Amino acid sequence: MSTPGGATVHAAGCVLWRRAPGTGEPQLCLVHRPKYDDWSHPKGKLRPGEDPLAGALREVAEETGCTAVPGAELPTVRYPVNGRPKEVRYWTAQAVSGTFTPNDEVDRVQWLSPPAARARLTHPRDRALVDALPPDLGSV
Description:
The chain has a single domain, classed as Nucleoside Triphosphate Pyrophosphohydrolase (Alpha-Beta Complex), CATH 3.90.79. Strand 4 and strand 5 (38-40) form a beta hairpin. 20% of the residues lie in helices and 46% in strands. It is α+β, with helices and mostly antiparallel strands.
């Protein structure tokens, strides 16, 4: 898709989750990006020719240090960035291993209950992804 503002930026990410230690309840991982001082889901631009799901899992690993198993695809999010349209495809993904190490792109992560994560997210478009999670997320 091309527009007067330029070609669409294609990106992908995940609503990353795990079972809370102790309770087993689902927790969502949010990333803090110091460049924007915001809390969001792990995501990033796709490399040329990269499969969107592979790109989403790569971004999760780069931003959170987690290896994840993908689940259901979530709604695609579209919004403008610097005058260009951006399209981000999302999936649920369960974290299965890994350790976070702060870096230039992401300096903090937080694991929160879905309601707490929804409240912490900076952008309404990211909150809509929490609302779209399957009700049986923690029963996998």
